[in-house]
Amino acid sequence: MITASRFSSGMSSALDEDTRATLDAGRETAGAMLRAAQKDLQKVFIFFLIGFLGTFYALRLYVWDFLKRVTRAQMSAGVSGDVSIIAQTPFDVILLQAKIGLVVGVVLALPVFLYFSRDALVERGLWPSSPVPVWQLVLIFLGMVTLFVLGVAYGYFVFFPFTFAFLAQNAIAAGFSPTYSIVKWAQFIFLLTASFGLASQLPLAMTGLSYAEIVPYETFRDKWRHAAVGVFAVGALFTPPDPFTQIMWAIPVLALYGVSLYLAKIVTTARRGSEKMDVAASVRAHWNVIAGVGVVGALLVYAFFERGGVGYVNDGLAAIGSDYVILAPSSTALLGGYVLLAGVAAAIVAVGYFVYHDLDDLAVVEAGVGDPSKIDLADLDADGVRAAPPEVFGALSEDEAMAAAGDALDAGERAKAQAIIDRFDEDGDSGGDGTDGAAAPAESEAATAAESGGSIGDRFSRASSTFFDEFGDDEESGGDSDAADGDESEFEGYYTDIAFILDSITSRAFRIVGLFMLVLAGTFGWLYTGGIKRVYEDFLSRLPAQVTPEEVLNVVALHPMEALVFEVKFSTIVAGIVTAPVLAYYAWPALRERNIIRQRQRAVFLWTGALAAGLIGGFALGYSTIAPGIISWLVNDAVQANMVIAYRITNFFWLIFFTTAGIGILADVPILMILLNSAGVSYRSMRGRWREVTVGVLAFAALFTPADVLTMFLVTIPLMAAYGIGLGVLFVVTLGGRRDLAPPRSVDA
To answer: Which residues cross the membrane (predicted)?
Structure first.
């Protein structure tokens, strides 16, 4: 029998010394925290209990009704009547409330536990100490809470109503019932709520990082394009896969990024200045302008309410189908309050503006008026770079010069990028003593360039040529002998082949990606505008008469995004199938050069025709016979038991896909293997690589099928069975691999 101590020592021996030390320190710290807070654990548990029970009953009494009202806020009466929220099991609601209450209770109790265990953390130097005054920490905390509330409010009063109305209308237009599972519906809402709350912290995060110089302000400023792409990428993860909702998520975040960038510039300027921010001095210097801005802001709000602005806004909201209305102040006192708040807000904005400009002017004076080394290359154009004094480039490092040139290239200013490189080569660190190097002998320059890899300009101009271009030149001179000697490992050989093929189609990537996106967008647009409903109705017409959809067979959406996700996945598969022949056409020369295939480029058309025939034939057979027969057989059991079937959209349509297009794909597998053998891929190679094929099929099934293990194996097993049939056919055709369909490969001397 293995004791716990032996097992623990065995596990410890499998870890390196640093990992064991870290784990031991963590266990010791956790034990010390528990001992330090032992007498106060009852108080911690009380906070946990308050959070758990309070959330449990708040969900039951108020939150569910509020979330339902938010879900239906922008739906028409007809759409709202078709939307229902169901519990799939008897325990769904109570378990969901318990899970949410558990999370809230832990979040509420954790700070209390840390506070009572602070003595143990102080002894180990883990308790944070900050010179920041308490009142500033309180302001930061209040700012975080305020921003979080504003982000969540935008989600619940703007984003969610429009999004749910759009998703429900899309499902109904496709002929499905938006019957949401309470678990999936709640997860969708809370995930997006968290995303809005976290995204709203962007101003504080960027300002704090810039002030502490963890991430310089210049990085946020220069990489705004990357930030915009990142915002849309995160929006694609959190929101439904349609442009409307992604834009509704991304636009406020991008606006926050702009505001945060301005705030980061203010605090960075104050941080780098030698004097502290003097708000009072700035107010005294510009009090008349600040007061004027406040008065103008107050007058604008007063004119908005008194000159019919409320009516214009409500008419605009009604024009876009919104039920929201703006209410005018019900009393003169309330109107005065609005006007006063508007004036104060405008004055505060003006104060911030003048404080920043005073700090900016101070920083310029302290840096030294006319100091050439303080010139920012980002503010210059190509002519300005060429005319800049040498001190600008003498103060730059090589990495900084390359970064500035890269930023110019990202902005589409190639001439400016080249000018930066030329000036750095001339006047920067590589320029030596600051002379242009004209007096140096050519031989010395060549020797120096050869030793250092050339000037930065040479290396920058060579950046467009890839490693595999140079590798190809080397291979022409000695690659065959290296391969003959067997110096290259098997993995390196695969990597080289794949990289060489990918590099060969790089110049055609725009056409390939363009075709892929065009087909994807066209297929998605057709499905989205009613194509999926037409397919659904046509397929139902092929089922037996005793299967009445209104009484027996229903297709429902358990998740708000379920219909859209299926449409995107199906469109991606269609785009991949259509793009594959074009990709093969452009990659064919590289495949021939690497001795992977033997046939010429025009054989692509033969391959496309053969595979298309197999796919279309299998699809016709599956759609007309196999799929209706399987679904009828499944439904008949429910009909005989007097049950009503409610298929999920994804399960129902993937079943149709697997029994229609899937038959064609299965038929194409042996055809493709025969074609590959005729192109030079040997039978023995395909038989020996069945493990790699299995992994690839599993990866395909994980990406393009519903995310569950059973479906992955339901896809993988038939495909691998078809692969086995293909191997059997090839075994017969090639006489056990002794005579492949392609001529034997010649061996170069």
So the answer is: 44-63, 94-116, 137-168, 188-212, 247-264, 285-305, 335-356, 509-528, 570-591, 603-626, 652-676, 688-707, 713-735
